[in-house]
Amino acid sequence: MIKEADIQKKVEEIGRQINEEYGDKKPILIGVLKGAFMFLADLLREIDIPLEVDFLSIHSYNGKESSGVVRITHDLSLNIEDRNVILVEDIIDSGRTVSYILENLRTRKPRSLVVCSLLSKESRRVVDVPLNYVGFTIPGVFVVGYGLDYDNRYRNLKYIGVLDDK
């Protein structure tokens, strides 16, 4: 669906935007594990302003479907109070998971909180969430690769492909 070269070009573009918009604000980029780790790693290489990185681990999927229940399985180690936070996601589907994360992070009183997602499935959105940086808008199909998985497989693909039901 999305070639490696196209992903890298888009990551460079998003990195440039963050450089321009954050300058000396020293943002904290929070990667949502496990899916966003490849996107976050590549994005970090494109950002040349001072920043910090932390991770959240969330569980909300059962196979190919969202369970509707979101659990934090690994919390932040950094204090985000009065900090500029960029939440980095691999994909925004229904919006439930990112909405839950945003509500949770807002209770920690960041100065600003925005969302950066490599992929967005607008056609499947149930909860409206603001997305400040979006790589690609894709149809409502199940995708794997570049960190995205199906039962912990296919994360290592350098591209993003549609999972064949076979």
What does this entry look like structurally?
It is a single chain. The protein has one domain: Rossmann fold (3-Layer(aba) Sandwich), CATH 3.40.50. Helix content is 24%, strand content 33%. The chain contains 3 helices and 8 strands. The strands form 2 sheets. The protein has a 6-stranded mixed sheet with strand order 3-2-1-4-5-6, sandwiched between helices. The protein has a two-stranded antiparallel ribbon with strand order 7-8. β2 and β3 form a beta hairpin. α1 (4-22) packs across α2. The longest helix has 19 residues, at 4-22. The model has no long low-confidence stretch (mean pLDDT 94).
Quick structural overview:
The chain is built from 3 helices and 8 strands; from the N terminus they run αβαβββαββββ. The chain is α/β, with parallel strands linked by helices.
Describe the strand arrangement of the main beta sheet, using strand numbers.
3-2-1-4-5-6
Measured by DSSP, the beta-strand proportion falls in: 25-35%
Total DSSP E strands: 8
Could you give the distance between the termini?
17 Å
Q: What would CATH call the class?
A: Alpha Beta
Please estimate the helix content: 10-25%
Number of helical runs?
A: 3
**Mean model confidence by pLDDT:** 94
Outline: globular
Radius of gyration, in Å, reads: 15 Å
Give unreliable regions as ranges. Answer: none
Order of helices and strands: HEHEEEHEEEE
Structurally, the number of domains stands at: 1
Could you name the CATH topology? Rossmann fold
What class, by secondary structure content?
alpha/beta
Give the CATH architecture. Answer: 3-Layer(aba) Sandwich
The main pleated sheet reads as: 6 strands, mixed
